[in-house]
């Protein structure tokens, strides 16, 4: 076997390892995370990070939709296990304090209220950034940790949005 073929096989093997176990490119479909993530935007998710660190408030996570695990959703973590989450006239109250969400422009806010929930063990309360057009924990409840399989970490398309996600 020539060196060229050997190098190609090694490169494909390394790329497959990275995509299967570490980073996966995904396409955002829908507008529920605007303006943080636009419809058709391309991002990388880190599929390994939650094996070494916990899911935290504010993380943008990718998970299997609880009502149809064949579908994937992407949302922002608002509450972790034990948190008290309530929404009053569109303002998120987390453990008795109003959450400052500077990533949500006024036009994407939602005036609806939501009764207080205590996030169960091994679960997360997630919301889309486009609150008025998001199917999220207000609809399907907290997401079990076993459904979460990645953290959105880096945007790579379109070019004007290349960079780390916050």
Spans of at least 5 consecutive residues whose pLDDT stays below 50 are: none
Distance between the termini: 46 Å
Beta-strand percentage?
A: 25-35%
Overall, the morphology is: elongated
Which class do the helix and strand fractions yield? alpha+beta
Put simply, the count of helices is 2
CATH architecture: Ribbon
The total count of strands amounts to 12
- Total domain count: 1
Q: Residue-averaged pLDDT, rounded?
A: 93
Classified by CATH, the class is Mainly Beta
Radius of gyration: 18 Å
CATH topology: Umud Fragment, subunit A
- Could you describe the largest sheet, including whether it forms a barrel? 8 strands, antiparallel
Binned, the helix content reads 10-25%
Structure description:
The chain has 166 residues and is of the alpha+beta class. Helix content is 14%, strand content 35%. The chain has one domain (26-164): Umud Fragment, subunit A (Ribbon). It contains two helices and twelve strands; from the N terminus they run αβββββββββαβββ. Strands 1, 2, 3, 4, 9, 10, 11 and 12 form an eight-stranded antiparallel beta sheet that branches. A four-stranded antiparallel beta sheet has the order 7-6-5-8, with no helix packed on it. It starts with a helix and ends with a strand. The model has no long low-confidence stretch (mean pLDDT 93).
């Amino acid at each position: 076997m020539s060196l060229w073929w050997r190098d190609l096989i090694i490169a494909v093997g390394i790329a497959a390892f990275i995509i299967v176990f570490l980073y996966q490119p995904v396409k955002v479909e829908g507008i529920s995370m605007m303006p943080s993530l636009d419809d058709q935007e391309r991002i990388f998710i880190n599929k390994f990070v939650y094996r070494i660190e916990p899911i935290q408030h504010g993380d943008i996570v990718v998970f299997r939709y609880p009502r149809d695990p064949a579908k994937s959703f992407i949302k922002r973590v608002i509450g972790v296990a034990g948190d008290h989450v309530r929404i009053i006239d569109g303002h998120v109250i987390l453990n008795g304090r109003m959450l400052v969400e500077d990533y949500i422009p006024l036009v994407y806010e939602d005036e609806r209220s939501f009764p207080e929930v205590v996030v169960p063990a091994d679960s997360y309360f997630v919301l889309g950034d486009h609150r008025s057009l998001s199917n999220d924990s207000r609809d399907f409840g907290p997401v079990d940790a076993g459904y979460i399989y990645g953290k959105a970490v880096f945007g790579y398309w379109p070019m004007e949005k290349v960079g780390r996600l916050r």
